[in-house]
């Protein structure tokens, strides 16, 4: 391949890559509507860990007295949840019979006060 052919091929590749639409990593409201069964507050039995799954695809997790200890985005696929913490940490969990199993913890849905 000549230098000119290589430069032309490289330019075409760069143009095609730049022209491709960016894929959003943000989850939209429609992905997790407010009435989705998993949106809301999940807590361990002792209340030490509290994780709120927000309708906009974000989560906020408190540990003990440390509010917002972990924050990031999440996606639910069937009964599996994937987490991407804002610091780059990833995790997953599984919903089994209305109970969230995540990171060795068992979390229960906290019902809203009437």
Structural notes for this entry:
This protein is mostly beta strands. The protein has one helix spanning 3-19, and strands spanning 40-44, 49-53, 58-63, 66-77, 80-85, 90-96, 99-102, 105-109. A hairpin with a 2-residue loop joins strand 4 (66-77) and strand 5 (80-85). The longest helix is centred in the N-terminal third of the chain and has 17 residues, at 3-19. It is globular.
Topology at a glance:
Layout: H1 3-19, E1 40-44, E2 49-53, E3 58-63, E4 66-77, E5 80-85, E6 90-96, E7 99-102, E8 105-109
Antiparallel strand pairs: 1-2, 1-8, 2-3, 3-4, 4-5, 5-6, 6-7, 7-8
Q: Helix amount, in percent?
A: 10-25%
Give the integer mean of the pLDDT values.
79
Secondary structure tally: strands: 8
Sheet of most strands: 8 strands, antiparallel, barrel
What series of H and E elements makes up the topology? HEEEEEEEE
**Uncertain spans, ≥5 residues at pLDDT below 50?**
3-30
Q: What percent strand?
A: 35-45%
Largest beta sheet: what is the strand line-up? 1-2-3-4-5-6-7-8
The rounded distance between the terminal residues' Cα atoms is 73 Å
Categorize the overall geometry: globular
Radius of gyration, CA atoms, in whole angstroms: 20 Å
Number of helices: 1
Structural class: mainly beta
């Amino acid at each position: 391949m000549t230098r000119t052919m290589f430069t032309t091929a490289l330019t075409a590749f760069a143009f095609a890559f730049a022209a491709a639409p960016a894929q959003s990593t943000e989850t939209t409201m429609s992905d997790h509507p407010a009435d989705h069964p998993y949106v809301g507050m999940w807590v361990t039995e002792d209340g030490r860990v509290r994780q709120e799954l927000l309708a906009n695809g974000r989560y906020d997790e408190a540990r003990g007295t440390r509010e917002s200890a972990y924050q990031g985005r999440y996606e639910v696929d069937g009964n599996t949840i994937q987490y991407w913490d804002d610091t780059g940490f990833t995790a997953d969990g599984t919903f089994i019979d209305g109970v969230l199993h995540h990171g060795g913890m068992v979390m229960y849905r906290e019902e809203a006060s009437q």
